[in-house]
Amino acid sequence: MTINHANPRLTLRQSLGRTHMMISLTAVCMAGLFLTITALLALRLYADHNLKLVARAISYTTEAAVVFDDKDAAKDALETITSREDIASASILLPDGQVLASWRRDITTPWTSLEQQLARLILPGPVEQPIVRENKEIARVHLVGHGQYLLRFLLQTLMATLVCLLLSILGALYVARRMQRSITAPLKALTEVAYNVSRQRALKQRVPAANIAELHALGEDFNSLLDELEAWQAHQKRENASLLHQATHDPLTGLPNRALFEARLEQAIQAGHTRHERFALLYLDCDRFKQINDNLGHAIGDEVLITLARRVQHQLRPMDLVCRLGGDEFVVLLFPVHQGSEVQEVMMRIQQAMSTPVVLSDGRHLGVGISVGSALYPEQGETADALLQFADGAMYESKRQRREGAGDHKTTT
Question: Global pTM?
């Protein structure tokens, strides 16, 4: 798999995390901006109202000083009122434009100039309040607001916004993880099952249920596909097993055929060579089988072969193998063999089993003889061909002796 380091792909979890983070930050910033603008408008209205109230208070307090042209009294009253308020400067102007009294806040900190700049930008303009006596304006109060509280408000707003941003980031991370887990966990489970199915052919695995409807439906569809694949795999196994059985077994007797026997014989030779173990090969042939087929028919011959196969199987050990090579020829693989007497004992049991007449389907009894020859590995052959030839020769020698015995018995009789 090629990875592009210049432009790496994001995981679904990373993409969801970034999305939640951007949404949270955008929401907090927009909310903070709207709240700040609203608060500034409210503060502007409050400042304007406060300046007007201060101007009225100054006009009432300094009316007498204006009437008697007492500059000191007017200045003292003006300073007393404005020093306790958020006022940058205040003055009392006479109708002819002369200044009766004025007051200005001193610049004591580097922030004062900044506060005044903010006041000029945001707060309402200067407020003027006439001083009236007997319905005649005798002077005018001129006030300019100060931005001390405005700067403090902006700093507090900034701190509150930063705190909200921090809390929003933490909340977004928590919510994102919860949401990511609810989305990515089912997808991760689906990915793991798909990986195991594609790499390990684990068709029995299933995707667990998910809380999200779409992901649950996707998992169910995938599980349905796995059900079909598992059923198809089971069908293929049955078909393959059936084909393998047909290819390696005789259709009449159900015994292993020549192909399977040759493979097992090679395995036995390899095992005998590696572990220095002995085994025996028996070659079986039904006596007068051609006469049975010619005189009684092939159906009777098939019954004889089936009975012969069943009786030979019953005389063998669990690890032994009997196969039909073709026609009336059978071969038995005895593995392992520790003593030669074991081979003779099996051959004797087979001969005794075949001494009982075969009961045909029509109820008739048919006596069937069998000739057996044996070959012992490695004494009588170390290859498959050598063992088969030796056992075949021994079988024909046994058949010849049986025929001569039967002839002598006839002559004596």
Answer: 0.51
